Amino acid sequence: MAILVLGGAGYIGSHTVDRMINQGYDVVVVDNLLTGHRQAVHNKARFYQGDCRDRDFMREVFKVEPIEGVVHFAASSLVGESVENPLKYFNNNVVGMEALLEVMEEFDVKHIVFSSTAATYGEPEVSPISEDTPTNPKNPYGESKLMMEKMMKWCDEAYGMRYVALRYFNVAGAKSDASIGEDHDPETHLVPIILQVALGQRDYLTIFGEDYDTPDGTCIRDYVQVEDLADAHILALEYLKAGNASEVFNLGSNNGYSVKEMLDAARQVTNKEIPAVMGPRRAGDPSTLVASSEKAKNLLGWKPEYTDIQAIIKTAWNWHVQHPEGYQDK
Ligand code: UFG
User: Fold this and answer.
1) Which class in CATH covers the domain with range 2-171+223-251?
2) How is domain 190-222+254-322 classified at the CATH fold level?
3) What is the pTM of this model?
């Protein structure tokens, strides 16, 4: 039996496929390659290029492959873009989920692990954020992911389709041997941008706001290493296979780092100056997002290996040094 990974050519998807294959899973990848990279997909995964909104294409994949479960990463995921173009997010993310669930139901596939986000919480007052914290998304991206979670919930009630929604906080780093890593175009995320400055590909980092209500005035985030994050998906598949009920889990490190602390940590790791300038706040950025991941540790048995921020940044740095232009498929 095989696991279908939708979006398996993307940043988190490709690391999850890699970990799954190394643990002996039979893996089928579907990706439309709009943002993913063919080179990022493990050569032992069977690859189909296509879009999960295309029901006929999806039916063909489900017909020829012995799929017993799905891991769903395929989505648009830029907060700023979602505010400017909400319908893109409702189409790609929500309509994509509807088509996927329909085909899963047709083929009697009952397990799905879903890539959700801290953006479903919006800007809660509490820290750390637990799964009981009310959801209140502040942008169409977070709203679309919450809608997708709710679609799975109602399909569980109606068809007994069980799901695990993994709400990621900030993901960073690369595979420890630097063979796969993060390559977005355009790049908007803090860690790769800092490292591109360290490599001389950008002149400086712009820090988006230093007037937040935090000790140094810059935003605080909770960074989790991508291979640790990938492992949580495998544990979630096993959790569903063992007959457990549908659940939502936060995935973070329980530690918050400010933008300035991340910059200092990257200076240590790279031994480079990394110039930075202060800029205005970026619209829609919450001041502090730190996860409580106790539930994932207790129920899934998740044990993140990386607890040190410099060690996380080091894995990203190794990838950037060895692949300064990212994947060579552009
Ligand atoms: N930042 C800068 N300068 C930059 C880029 C980022 O100061 O050039 C700051 C941001 O303002 C933020 C922090 O660095 O405070 C982290 O920003 P990222 O863009 O790396 O990540 P986000 O926290 O905005 O977003 C991430 C995921 C989203 C997800 C969100 C959930 O990328 O997909 O977490 O909160 F929705």
Assistant:
1) alpha beta
2) UDP-galactose 4-epimerase; domain 1 (3.90.25)
3) 0.97
